[in-house]
Amino acid sequence: SQTEKQTMATTSLAVQYLDRLDELEAQGLDTAEAQKEYNLVVDKLNTILPDINANIDEQTGLVEGGTAALREYVDAWKDKALMEAMQKKYNDELSAWADAQIEVAGNQQKLNKELAKQDQLRQNIADANKKYNELITEQINLQGSVENPRYWEIDQELNALLNEQYSYNAELSKSEREVKNLNKAIAEGEGTLAEYEGQVLEAQELMDSFSSSAEDNAQALSPLPDLVDSVATEVAALTEEYRLVYEEAYKSISGQYQ
């Protein structure tokens, strides 16, 4: 990601500055020019990493604590920055995964509702056909009595049944198209869900591995272990939060389409 690239670029630049400080110390700071460059490099280091708080000892003219301690800080800062970047990426993937789950569950509920609707429509069509055939039989039996008002009443009932059948068939055709679209959406959604799930698991494993490594690398800088633990704790909390959000959303969807 862009954040990870920026972190690595800043780390690389900081290491270059520290290398230069080591070179200047090895050469000796006996001249005003060397001291000026040394101070300038320290200023540049503080500019790109404000929290490093690199100060020059007035007695020795060198950075307080030495460059080795500053290198440990840079390594720990890099670990923390990368951990935070991975956390954001993980959170984004987890959110997308939860959204995909909710979408698939919602479409499945719609599909179940639509299939139940089709069953009812087919039953309505069957009932209308049965009634139609019964009326035809009744009318045939009345053919010798065309003056009978019932003969003409049957005509009207038959027309009404034909209209009902037309309406039921039209609804059934529309429902069948909807079922086709829902099946396609569910299949695509399940594919997307599988991709997100793989990404989430991969990100989780990467963070677990990186967190363990970062904790080891950050021991030299007392605030950093706590910060790394804090990021890991936030990840765990967000994981639980998204799980609860998904469960509540799924319950809501289930209730809506029952």
Radius of gyration: 37 Å
Distance between the termini: 43 Å
Estimate the mean pLDDT confidence.
83
Q: From the helix content, strand content and strand pairing, which structural class follows?
A: mainly alpha
Helix percent reads over 70%
Structure, described:
This protein has 258 residues and is mostly helical. 86% of the residues lie in helices and 0% in strands. The protein has five helices and no strands. The protein has helices spanning 2-27, 32-48, 66-141, 149-217, 223-257. Helix 3 (66-141) packs parallel to helix 5 (223-257). The model has no long low-confidence stretch (mean pLDDT 83).
Write the layout of secondary structure elements.
Elements: H1 2-27, H2 32-48, H3 66-141, H4 149-217, H5 223-257
Summarize the structure.
By secondary structure, this protein is mostly helical. It has helices at 2-27, 32-48, 66-141, 149-217, 223-257.
Can you tag this structure with a few keywords?
258 residues, mainly alpha
